[in-house]
Amino acid sequence: MVMAGANTRARTELPDAPRPQVQAEPAEETAERRRKVFHQRFYSGRATRITLGLELGAWVADMAYTCRNLASRHGSEDWLPTNTCAQTVALTAGFHAAGEGVAYLLHRLGHHKLEQIPRWYLTGGNVAGAAFTSANAWHPSHAYPMN
Question: Angle at the Cα of 53 (from 50 to 57), degrees rounded to 5?
Answer without folding.
Answer: 140
